[in-house]
Write a structure and sequence with these properties.
This protein has nine helices and six strands; from the N terminus they run βαααααβαβαβαββα. The chain is an alpha/beta fold. The chain has a six-stranded parallel β-sheet, sandwiched between helices. Strand 2 (about 110-115), helix 6 and strand 3 (about 135-140) form a beta-alpha-beta unit. It is elongated.
């Protein structure tokens, strides 16, 4: 394969926000819980990789809360804003991505971010990490009626980059993200995650960190 584009998910890949959010989401769900049953690690993990607008419904179902969905949504959005206004993104930034960026620039490979997060949130994080200008394209799930696992976000990204799905790779950590990339026909590199119960079986390749992922990218490009 001649690689022409590398498309990154953001949360859980570029920055380790997925696990940070997951830990706090558990508490959020417990605070709303109205039943006596235990909620399993697998059930809590349902929120991982879901878009902001999809999470409140999962929270309602897991907690058994009698609050209207709109109210849970309001509480959750406020909770989300609060935790992310207090985060120092540089401390959870996977710095070695810079080596992948450098490799891409040297080999004329386009770079994109395709994330379910809100566009302002993506821009903020990438700016804080000093890599926003390195990307040819930044795409948010809020631009579409359905975000991941729907493949539209990836199809749109490929179209805007002018690249065939056969010449692109997507770097994803969540099951929903992998489904979206795979359905768009893109080779998937999984950023390995073992702290949450995430099904990563759809990944064509897996790397434990950005340096392992760089080695996979080099192998695909030169293969």
């Amino acid at each position: 394969m001649t690689l022409q584009a590398i498309i990154f998910d953001m949360d859980g890949v570029i920055v380790d926000t997925e696990y940070l959010e997951f830990s706090l989401q558990r508490k959020f769900i417990l605070d709303l819980k109205e039943h006596q049953n235990d909620i399993s690690h697998e059930q809590y993990s349902q929120v991982a990789g879901k878009s902001l607008k999809d999470i409140p419904l999962i929270v309602k179902e897991l907690s058994g809360s009698s609050l209207p969905l709109a109210e849970i949504q309001q509480h959750y959005y406020a909770f989300f804003q609060k935790i992310f206004s207090e985060v120092d993104y540089l401390t959870i930034f996977r710095q070695d991505i810079k080596q992948i960026i450098q490799f891409a620039k040297q080999n004329n490979i386009k770079l994109a971010v395709a994330s379910s997060s809100a566009l302002a949130h993506i821009h903020n994080i990438l700016s804080c990490c000093g890599i926003k200008d390195d990307f040819d394209l930044i795409v948010s799930g809020e631009m579409f009626e359905h975000s991941k696992p729907d493949p539209t976000i990836y199809r749109y990204t490929l179209e805007k980059l002018g690249v065939s799905h056969k010449n692109a790779v997507a770097i994803e950590d969540s099951y929903y993200g992998m489904v979206a990339a795979q359905q768009a026909g893109i080779t998937v590199i999984g950023y390995e995650e073992t702290r949450m119960a995430i099904d990563q079986s759809l990944a064509d390749y897996k790397g434990k960190d950005m340096l392992e992922i760089l080695a996979i990218i080099q192998q695909i490009h030169h293969g």
